[in-house]
């Protein structure tokens, strides 16, 4: 795999041309938009997956480190999950009253998520984060939310289309340092409903002190502490950052890895804050869809009976060590940073954006799909990681030989 193979992605780009006519940006998900600079190599469409492999519209095979942008924690078409979905499909998908799975999965989640006394389900991560913000406001009677990190499009205030009055109720602050949070809380005591935080990737280890500090500050000011565990849940640890760092928030959102790819999110937390759901009117027709819940139940079972987290970590560590060794051997300013299950690929170079795109192109030619954060899954084997590291090393070497790292 370290060697380049001739691949055509012609059918993919032809279909993408049609897509651009009928779908703005040609896709629903910004991070899935193909990049014109990679026209000869980037597959716009994937049509099949199995374990850690995927196939594109033109029939090319790849090892996938994007994992559907995070949700594929166990691997594509993981048998126990697929079987659970099929079984549920035979009985129906959504009903006019609740389904028992809602209770069963909530009970299982409460057993494994430290902050969860109660659980509610939705379909996407972003809407569940919006629900936690609504709950925190309803509970505290305050408007202001201090955010840290990306929480989905609904909660993104920095772009157009958001009324100024709404934007003014969100303040985005950086990861890792309690001081801006402390200063804001001191300057606006009684205004802040919640601190809402998603872990950073490259410098995640700062979370040991940072989350402890945020917990103390939010306790001191009567503010709801919310963790966005959408990526970290079922990956960093089963219960995400709250388990890894040992600091329990009031509310948290889990999505992505919870159901191995079937759309499902949940917001969980302490009884007092969760209890405001009725007055805050958080309700959705598809909140209790049974396919997502059947998948989540199967995923919880697989995690309970296998060392999924240990495997994801071990493969991630193997990937990081192997790749970083190539970077040192070639003397190029590139490395994986951060925790092994969510390693961030960092190009420490003035031309980092172009270098990252070129690296993407080079690894695609060698049969790898990567992302700025590379996710390992339970289905990546040691041998697959070895061959992937070799392909990444060969890609860097080709770039170096082309003089791309000369400054
Ligand atoms: C940390 C984090 N929070 C929230 C979201 C939004 O989740 P969704 O795309 O399911 O709305 C994402 C999506 O990538 C995310 O990475």
What do you see in this structure?
Helices cover 41% and strands 15% of the residues. It is of the alpha/beta class. The protein folds into 2 domains: 10-76 and 307-401, Alpha-Beta Complex (Aspartate Aminotransferase, domain 1); 79-305, Type I PLP-dependent aspartate aminotransferase-like (Major domain) (Aspartate Aminotransferase, domain 2, 3-Layer(aba) Sandwich). A 7-stranded mixed beta sheet has the order 4-10-9-8-7-5-6, with helices on both faces. Helix 7 (207-221) links the parallel strand 7 and strand 8. Helix 2 runs antiparallel to helix 11 (290-305) and helix 3 (100-112) runs parallel beside helix 11. The radius of gyration is 22 Å and the shape is globular. The chain starts with 9 loop residues before the first helix and ends in a 6-residue tail after the last helix. The relative contact order is 0.16. The mean pLDDT is 96. The structure holds pyridoxal-5'-phosphate. Pyridoxal-5'-phosphate binds next to helix 4.
- In the sheet with the most strands, the strands line up as 4-10-9-8-7-5-6
Shape: globular
The secondary structure category is alpha/beta
Indicate the radius of gyration in whole angstroms. 22 Å
β-sheet strand percentage: 15-25%
Q: Report the order of strands and helices.
A: HEEEHHEHEHEHEHEHEEHHHHEEHEEH
Number of helices: 14
Specify the CATH architecture of the largest domain.
3-Layer(aba) Sandwich
Broad CATH class of the largest domain: Alpha Beta
Number of domains: 2
Task: State the total count of DSSP E strands.
Answer: 14
**What's the CATH topology label of the largest domain?**
Aspartate Aminotransferase, domain 2
Classify the helix fraction into a percent range.
Answer: 40-55%
| Uncertain regions spanning at least 5 consecutive residues | none
Mean of residue pLDDT? 96
Tell me the span between the first and last alpha carbons.
Answer: 30 Å
State the fourth-level CATH superfamily of the largest domain: Type I PLP-dependent aspartate aminotransferase-like (Major domain)
List each distinct ligand once: pyridoxal-5'-phosphate
């Amino acid at each position: 795999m370290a060697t380049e193979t001739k691949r055509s992605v012609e059918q993919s780009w032809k279909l993408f041309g049609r897509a651009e006519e009928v779908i703005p940006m040609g896709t629903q998900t910004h991070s899935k938009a193909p990049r014109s600079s990679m026209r000869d190599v980037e597959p716009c469409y994937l049509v099949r997956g199995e374990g850690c492999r995927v196939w594109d519209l033109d029939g090319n095979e790849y090892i996938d480190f994007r994992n559907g942008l995070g949700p594929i924690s166990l691997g594509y078409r993981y048998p126990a999950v697929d079987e659970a979905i099929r079984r549920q499909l035979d009985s129906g998908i959504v009903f006019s009253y609740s389904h028992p799975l809602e209770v069963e999965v909530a009970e299982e989640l409460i057993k494994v998520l430290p902050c969860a006394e109660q659980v509610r389900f939705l379909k996407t991560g972003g809407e569940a984060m919006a629900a936690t913000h609504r709950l925190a406001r309803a509970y505290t009677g305050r408007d202001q939310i201090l955010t840290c990190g990306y929480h989905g499009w609904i909660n993104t205030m920095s772009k157009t289309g958001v009324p100024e009055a709404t934007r003014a109720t969100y303040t985005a602050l950086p990861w890792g340092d309690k001081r801006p949070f402390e200063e804001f809380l001191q300057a606006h005591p009684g205004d802040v409903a919640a601190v809402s935080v998603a872990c950073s990737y490259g410098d995640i280890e700062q979370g040991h002190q940072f989350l402890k500090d945020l917990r103390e500050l939010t306790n001191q000011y009567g503010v709801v502490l919310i963790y966005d565990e959408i990526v970290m849940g079922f990956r960093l640890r089963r219960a995400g950052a709250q388990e890894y760092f040992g600091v329990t928030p009031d509310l948290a959102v889990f999505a992505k890895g919870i159901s191995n790819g079937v759309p499902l999110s949940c917001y969980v937390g302490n009884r007092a804050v969760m209890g405001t759901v009725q007055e805050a009117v958080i309700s959705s027709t598809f909140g209790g869809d049974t396919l997502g819940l059947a998948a989540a139940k199967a995923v919880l079972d697989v995690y309970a009976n296998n060392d999924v987290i240990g495997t994801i970590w071990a493969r991630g560590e193997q990937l990081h060590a192997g790749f970083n060794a190539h970077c040192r051997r070639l003397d190029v300013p590139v490395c994986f940073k951060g925790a092994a299950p969510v390693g961030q690929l960092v190009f420490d170079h003035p031309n980092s954006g172009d270098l990252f795109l070129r690296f993407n192109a080079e690894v695609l030619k060698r049969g790898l799909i990567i992302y700025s954060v590379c996710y390992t899954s339970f289905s990546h084997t040691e041998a697959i990681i070895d061959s992937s590291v070799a392909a990444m090393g060969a890609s860097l070497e080709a770039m170096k030989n082309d003089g791309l790292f000369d400054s």
